[in-house]
Each structure stands twice: as C-alpha cells, then as structure tokens.
Amino acid sequence: MGKTExxxxxxxxxxxxxxxxxxxxxxxxYKTSSIxxxxxxxxxxxxxxxxxxxxxxxxxxxTKMDNPNVAIDPEELMGKVLTYGAILLALAVCSFASxxxxxxxxxxxxxxxxxxxxKDLFYxxxxxxxxxxxxxxxxxxxxxxxxxxxxIQMCFMMLIRIxxxxxxxxxxxxxxxxxxxxxMAWIYAILIPILAVIFFFLIVKAxxxxxxxxxxxxxxxxxxxxxxxxxxxxxxxxxxEFEKKKFFKASDEMRDQFVIGERLLxxxxxxxxxxMYVSMLFIIWFGSYxxxxxxxxxxxxxxxxxxxxxxxxxxxxLSMVFVMISMSTACLRRVYEVLIEExxxxxxxxxxxxxxxxxxxxxxxxxxxxxxxxxxxxxxxxLVIHPGETIGIIGGTGSSKSTLxxxxxxxxxxxxxxVLVGGVDVRDYDIRTLRENVSMVLQKxxxxxxxxxENLRWGNNDATDEEIVQACHIAQADTFVESFPKKYDSEIxxxxxNVSGGQKQRLCIARAILKKPKVLIMDDSTSAVDTxxxxxxxxxxxxxxxxxxxxxxxxxxxxxxxxxxxxxMDDGRIVNMGKHEELLLSSPIYKEIYDLQNxxxxxxx
Length: 605
Description:
With about 600 residues, this protein is α/β, with parallel strands linked by helices. The protein is about 60% helix and about 10% strand. Strand 4 and strand 5 (about 425) form a beta hairpin. The two termini are about 50 Å apart.
C-alpha cells in the first residue's frame, strides 16, 4: 500500500492549515475573482459603517435646531437635509454596487474552485491502482466527489464573502462606536469576549459530531449503490423489506448525529439575540443619563444603537460561517485524504515504451494483497509462455486465477519475484504502453452509457466501421447487433443494463480485439454464452490474432481443452501444467472437473 501522509500536527491534532493549503491550489485561475470579492466586500462593509455616522450628524443637527434658543433658518435646514440625503444616497448606491459586484465574482470563484477541485479529485482517483480503490471503497469515493465537495464549495463561498464581511463590519463598527462614544464602549468590550467563548465551546463540541456524520454518508451511499446494482436479486428473493430496514437504519443513524450537531449549533442564535437586546438595554439606559447630562448627543446614541446591531449581526454571520466550517471540516479532511494518497502503481523514471512480443515469464512470483497479510494469494509461481501460445487456466473458486493475470497488466505489483512481458519486467514499462499491448476482458464486464460503436472504440479510438464489424464478427456479436433498429449506433444504457449477460460479454471481447494486442487475456469472459458460441469465438480469435498470446480463464473444460498449455490452479499455486490429454492422467483436480462436466448420473452425455 502507498504511504498516506498523516494530516496531524506534532500535538496530534488535525492540521487544517495544511489541508487548506493543498485544497487552495484548486483555486488557480479564480484567484483574481476571489481577491476582487474580498476587496468589494470590504468596500461594502466600509460604506455601511459610514452611513450610521452620517445619520448621527444629521440627527444631531436637527435636534440642535429644535432648541428654542436657536433661530431656525428653513433654507439652511433644507440645505443640510438635502446635503446629508445626497451623501446617504451616494453611500447606499456605493454599498449596493459593491455588494452586487462582490456577489457576482464570489459566485464565479466558488463554483470555479469546486469545479477544479472535482477535476483534481477525479484525476487523482483515475491514477489509483486497485489497491488504492480497495482502501477507500467505491461508495466513499463517490461521496467525496459529490456531497463533500458541495459542502466545501459552500464553505469557500462563505469564507470569501461572509467570513470577510463580518470581521470587517465588526472592526469598523467597534472602531466607530468607540470613537463616537468611548465612555460606552465598555459594553461591547464585555459582551463580545463572552460570546466568543460560547461560540468556541459550541463549535468544539460540534466538529467531532459532523466528522461522524460524513462517515455515515459513506454507509448510506454504499447501501443505496448495493441495492440498486443488485435490484434483480433483491426482487428475486423478495428482500425489499430487509433492504429497506438496512437503509432506514443507516439513514436514521445519520439523522440522529445531525440532530445532535444541529442542536448545539442552533444555540448560537438565541445567545446572539439575548446579547443584542442586553446591549441595547444598556445603551438606552446609560445613554439616557448621559444625554440628560449633556455628555453625548442623541444622534450619537442612535448611531451607537445601529453600530451595536451591526456588531451583533456580524457576530451572528460569523456564527453561520463557523457552523458551515464545522460541517465542512470532515469534508475537507476526507477530500484531502484522497488527494495525498500515493498510487501504489507508478511509472518508472525511464520507462520502456515498446513491447517486443507477447512472451510472458513468471519468475519465482509471490504475491500478497496487503503487506501484513499472513498468507500469500499467489505462491511459488514459475511459468514461461511463448509468443502466440494459447494458455488455458482452470481451477476452483478462490484459486487466484484472476490474481495471476492481474499481475501481467500490472494492476498489482508482485510482492516477490518478477513478471516479464516481451522479456522486460512489467515494472519497467510505461503503464499506458503495457496496457495498450495487454488487452484484458475482465471477469466483471462493464459497458458505458453511449452507442455500441462508442463503447467498442474504447479498444481503438481510430477503428474504422469495417474494423468494428470485423471485431464483432469474431466475437460473435454481429448477429444480435445487426438485429437492433440502429445497429451499431444503438444506445447502451448505464452499465449495459439493456443487453443480456452474454451479449455484454461478446461486446467486451470485440472491444478487446480492436486493440490488436500482443497479449489477450479472457478472464471467464464467455461464461454467459453457450458452448457452441464459445467455440466459434475461440476459432475466430485463433484465425484473426495468430501472433497474439491468448490466456483463457474458464470454468468449462471445453473452453480450454484445445489450448497449447493448461494450468491447473489450487490455493494460489500452479499444481499441474500440460495439455488436455496429459492432465486427464496426471491431475486429479482436472480429471474431477472433467468428469463432473461430462457425466450425468455416472453416464456419458
């Protein structure tokens, strides 16, 4: 397994700074939009904080004119009102324009960041070996690519908007309130630290809960994926109620954790409302005495109330940011884990870029799926296959037949020994070059959404229509394809759900043939076709690909009995090797399989 970098600091706590630094690389071309968002958010906050100050000046001037000892000049009064009105209107327009621009560029930045992050994550997953995929599981990788990145996108949006606006608004408001009425600033000096301590306590309690919630997402997605993929089996065995209960259990566990976390975070609003009203009460109470004592002006009290509301609303918005960050920390960690995972299969520094021929050598090969496994999946494998030979492999379930051929394409690396293709260790090849020359029809056949022609061209993107038809003819797929209304332009649904198992296998064989490989591996890939069709496919491969080394894994003796060499595998070892007639005499396992497949009730079929 590849070594995964620990996401912890020396003290053992999660290093979110390191996570943010790595994920921040996905901002890339959207850095300018992110910076502009912060700039215009700052301008919006500045304009909004100036407005109460101008309003206080207007109110102060109006209250002075209400003094009976002061002569009122109507024109002067109207002039001041118009002047202040014009200033307020200009500030409001500037604030609105700044906010609108900030909203536009921040939306562009957050969506672009999420798009880049999804691309980076998908690119990383695409580079994974089977070992890496097994480590995370498919359902977990899907959750990280979808749900987790959605939460990260929302968190990023809040960080470049609200998380910038709120502190700036808080600072501007505190400064303005302190400048205008320093004798009353102590109210905020007491309330703000108390609120900060409360928020910190709630968030510290909530973060571990949301970490558990997103682990539950994996289980929920796994349940859905497994149920949908196996829906035919579920309905065959009438297990709908059982599957529903399994899904409801996973869903309820996730809901319960969410409820606990949300309850904690929901306490922020009541605390904020309470402290807001307390601050207003103190300002009005002490302010009244100070106005009566001519220590402050009425306009200043009005501005102080407005700044108080802005301070506490800024704290409320910050609490929302903290809530989103609390929910996103688990997502950040999970995406980071994938991004720092090192593929266990990598290209060498100076890779070999050409495969000479289809010869294969297993030289003292031992293999474990995990380094700490007690037992080897393959042990003491020594095998020489010459170019153009046809090799059959047979054995019971779990005898490691598929594991053996997976080492040829370097889906896994040997634990001990070496595997050579074309006289070169597979670890010395460029991975793409090796897999272009070793074509494999996997045990689990997969077709993708698109036309039949598009699926077949996975084997050779430049294949002509004639080559596609010829490959389908060899794979015995042309007959049923021609029966479709649109023939080779017929649509294949996701996973090939609109074709039968045998049809899917034949299309996958045709796809592999189009690569014109030096080695063709068929991993139990004709199990869903009848013996007659199977024979036609083998005959077609023999005549169409005479120089290609062919390895056929099968459960049926008839599929391998004409091979140049047949391997009998048991418990991860090659226990017998030879031609059909030789193995009937020398291999008890082969003889037993042959007898079971060719006799019914003790009589020859």
